[in-house]
């Protein structure tokens, strides 16, 4: 096994959903910033425009043999990242680390929060405005690993009970056989225990500490098959990432060859 040899490119997307966060502090130095003017319309239409810009940036990096590392303020950016990989000829498996399932639909969610739906959208369900505009091909559930997800709503648990999506805790990811194909590695930093990530929007008690998450990430990155990384910094403006968050981010950057 080895680390990727292609040059990475760190892309900053300072948005939470369709809301621009110019003061969002992130734990990595970034290169390009994606900041399109979003059209009027529903949140889904605005997200479709944002994710189209992300997909363009990611596809450009892939075309040069690079490894996109997309740093954003929420998990929905994953739709643009995976669409960009697909445009570049890469059909990835997904390894998704998150305190939550992100498997809701507009019909099952009591809040209607789009940030609770992106993984379900990636596998072909939930709201389809963005996926259709992005020409996003659904990822086969058999090629998805959901890691941690210690806070599942009942509809998400019911969906997983009949889904081919595999689950693991953070330590279990180290020895888990992964799909033998390129990988999109997604990390919502709320996967960490709240003690390590103060200020996160939706904290969930009982999470793993930074060292354990870093070890798990290393095991995935060391496959040499990670084609893109998504890092969701799910906090608001004015929150300064602490040392634990920077440890996890540094693992992603170091093993990706930066």
Automatic annotation (TrEMBL):
PROSITE patterns: ARGINASE_2. It comes from the Bacteria. The keyword Transmembrane helix does not apply. Coiled coil: none annotated. The keyword Secreted does not apply. Keywords: Hydrolase, Manganese, Metal-binding. Pfam families: Arginase (PF00491). InterPro entries: Ureohydrolase (IPR006035), Ureohydrolase_dom_sf (IPR023696). SUPFAM superfamilies: Arginase/deacetylase (SSF52768). Belongs to the arginase family. This is Arginase family protein. It comes from Pseudonocardia humida.
């Amino acid at each position: 096994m080895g680390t990727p040899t292609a040059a990475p490119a760190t892309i900053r997307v300072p948005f939470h959903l369709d809301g621009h966060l110019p003061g969002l502090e992130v734990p990595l130095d970034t290169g390009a910033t994606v900041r399109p003017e979003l059209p009027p319309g529903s949140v889904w239409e605005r997200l479709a425009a944002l994710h189209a810009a992300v997909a363009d940036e990611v596809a450009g990096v892939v075309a040069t043999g690079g490894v996109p590392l997309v740093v954003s303020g929420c998990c929905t950016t994953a739709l643009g990242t995976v669409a960009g990989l697909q445009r570049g000829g890469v059909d990835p498996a997904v390894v998704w680390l998150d305190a939550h399932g992100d498997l809701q639909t507009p019909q099952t969610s009591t809040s209607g929060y789009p940030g609770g739906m992106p993984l379900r959208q990636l596998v072909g369900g939930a709201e389809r405005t963005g996926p259709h505009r992005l020409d996003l091909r659904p990822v086969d559930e058999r090629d998805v690993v959901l890691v941690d997800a210690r806070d599942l709503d009942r509809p998400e648990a019911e969906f997983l009970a009949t889904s081919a999506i595999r689950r693991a805790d953070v330590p279990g990811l180290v020895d888990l056989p992964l799909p033998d194909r390129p990988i999109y590695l997604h990390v919502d930093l709320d996967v960490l225990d709240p003690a390590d990530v103060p200020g996160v929007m939706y904290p969930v008690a009982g999470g793993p500490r930074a060292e354990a998450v870093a070890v798990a990430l290393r095991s995935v990155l060391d496959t040499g098959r990670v084609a893109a990384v998504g890092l969701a910094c799910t906090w608001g403006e004015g929150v300064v990432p602490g040392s634990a968050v920077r440890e996890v981010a540094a693992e992603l950057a170091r093993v990706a060859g930066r």
